[in-house]
Amino acid sequence: MPHKINSVAVLGSGTMGAGIAALAADKNCKVLLLDINEDTVNKARMNIVNEKKPLLSLPSNIKNIEIGTFEKDFHKIVNYEWICEAVVEKLEIKREIFTKIENFRSKSSFVSSNTSGIPLKEITKGMPENLLKDVCITHFFNPVKVMKLCELIPGEKTSKEVLETFSNFLANTLGKGVVYGKDTVNFIGNRIGCYFMLKGLHEGKDARKKNLSIEKIDALLSKPLGLPPTGLYGLIDLIGLDVMYSVGKNLEINLPKNDLGRPYVSLPDAELWLYNNGQLGRKSGGGFYRVQKSSNGEKIKEVYDLENREWVLSKKESMDSSSFDIMLDDTIEGNYVWNVMGSSLLYAADLVPEIADDIVNIDNAMKWGFAWQKGPFQIIDALDPKKVIEKCNRLGIKLPKMLEVINNSSNNRFYSTNEEFLNLSGDYEKISA
Ligand SMILES: NC(=O)c1ccc[n+]([C@@H]2O[C@H](COP(=O)([O-])OP(=O)(O)OC[C@H]3O[C@@H](n4cnc5c(N)ncnc54)[C@H](O)[C@@H]3O)[C@@H](O)[C@H]2O)c1
User: Fold this and answer.
1) Are 7-180 and 189-313 in the same CATH fold?
2) How far is the CA of 392 from the centre of ligand 1 (A)?
3) CA 270, CA 151: separation in Å to the nearest integer?
4) Which residues share a beta bridge with 137?
5) pTM (global) more than 0.85
6) Is 142 in the pocket of ligand 1 (CB under 6 A)?
7) DSSP 147
8) 40 lines ligand 1 (CB under 6 A)
9) Model confidence band, residue 1 (pLDDT cutoffs 50, 70, 90)
10) With contact defined as beta carbons under 8 Å apart, do 104 and 74 qualify?
11) CA distance 164 to 154
């Protein structure tokens, strides 16, 4: 029987911790928010109330949040049912916090980490059995209030009751779309999303030689594919090249040996140069793009010329077509989109059951966490799986697992018209509500 969660201690009051605390407070949970010092946690409290886009829907709900520091107030977590770790993405720091959690929490509490990509088994290695059965990953997306996705990832020993409690609470109290993943590096959304971004950067070098500008690439990797208007470079400006650099390092350590993403884990030379020079994206005043003010106050958008290392005026590029079919065109544009998006679809199709038991969890993760209009398998259906298989055969690409499944099945779509999805055996199964 799942339990009801009414209180949460959030450890770490940065972007994600503050977001999770605010969401829970908004849903009338009692919240404790802790961080390394009073300044940091006071600032987080002010942000929750004062943000231009407020984190609370009802400002008076701030009364539900008590703040404190790790040093003075850690013992208070004993009074909270859910202990949510949201400190910096550093394995050793997370392990330190987890050891402390186990010393202070109530034995009937539920514990989770909001890590974006470190496997739970790494965080909890060698920790007591008591903790292992009560812990899992609850991976929220930024901004917590807006993004529908929360990935729920059990560890090897997480009890069924703990999983059911989280699943119930995340969906019914916090209003999230819950996706069930496996304890593998970067889980679902970031595993595929980071492949897409890193592959896009690597293919970008060759594409620029063929005169595809950064603006053109962003236009190609947005509207025609039902992806957000930031495309590739705009999205990385938002995330930050420093985050992409660390993501790559984590992938290098934790990706399986023969993973198709391995060749792309390091930033390409041009992007590495930007990273080393602190040109990280919006947070550093510019990355691939920047906005300047002219002497008469007019806003001017510039793009960085990666070959000549200089800022130039950005040219607006847009695409009329909004059809996935561009991926099958044998043109410079079509080939680039195939090499990035097509390759990401094939990557996703090879990750069942490694990262999720079925295609539905993968599609939902990309729609709810990365704002794709369709998930990878829905896109392949829109293209027609037969055409994708033909293209792979023509290019000598080994069919990824789920395309192999559909190739050997009498069914020719990943989703039937009957609210069913294709499972690993090639049969249709009802999509659970
Ligand atoms: N920002 C995102 O888009 C995003 C999305 C999903 C998950 N995450 C994950 O959520 C977690 C928090 O990320 P964030 O974006 O909120 O980071 P952040 O940098 O905004 O906040 C991290 C917090 O950790 C605290 N901290 C720093 N050093 C510490 C230490 N030695 N001991 C304890 N606490 C320390 C900081 O004071 C800070 O408040 C990370 O694991 C991150 O990977 C981030």
Assistant:
1) no
2) 41
3) 33
4) 113, 153
5) yes
6) yes
7) -
8) yes
9) confident
10) yes
11) 11
Calpha distance 120→130 (Å, rounded): 15
At 234-243, the pLDDT tens digits run: 999 999 999 9
Whether ligand 1 lies within 6 angstroms of the CB of 171 is answered as no
- Tell how far the Cα of 90 is from the centroid of ligand 1, in angstroms: 9
Ligand 1: residue of 88, 153, 282 to mutate (most ligand atoms within 8 A of CB) is 88
N-term to C-term CA, the chain: 19
Ligand 1 within 6 A of CB of 246: no
Q: Examine the pLDDT at 51 and tell me if it is beyond 70.
A: no
| Ligand 1 atom closest to 89 (CA) | 41
Pocket of ligand 1 contains residue 88 by CB under 6 Å:
yes
Rounded distance from Cα 68 to ligand 1 centre (Å): 16
**Cβ(155) to ligand 1 under 6 A?**
no
Is 146 close to ligand 1, i.e. is its CB under 6 Å away? no
CA distance 78 to 129: 19
Share of the chain above pLDDT 70, in %: 100
**Residue 372: which of 390, 345, 398 has the closest Cα?**
345
Q: Which residue has the tokens 């259906």?
A: 381
State whether the beta carbon of 93 lies less than 6 angstroms from ligand 1.
Answer: yes
Domain ranges of the chain: 7-180, 189-313, 324-430
Q: Which residues pair with 150 in a beta bridge?
A: 140, 178
Structure tokens at 140: 């929220």
Tokens matching residue 122: 């790494």
CA atoms within 13 A on the CB side of 293: 3
pLDDT score recorded for residue 305: 97
Q: 421 - beta bridge partners?
A: 415, 429
CATH superfamily of 7-180: NAD(P)-binding Rossmann-like Domain (3.40.50.720)
Q: Tens digit of pLDDT for each residue in 374-426?
A: 999 999 999 999 999 999 999 999 999 999 999 999 999 999 999 999 999 99
Q: Which CATH number fits domain 189-313: 1.10.10.10, 1.10.540.10, 1.10.1040.10, 3.10.20.310?
A: 1.10.1040.10
Structure tokens given for 338? 């195939």
Check residue 52 and give its pLDDT: 77
| CB of 284 sitting under 6 A from ligand 1 | no
Distance 404 CA to ligand 1 centre (A): 40
Q: How far apart are CA 195 and CA 72, in angstroms?
A: 42
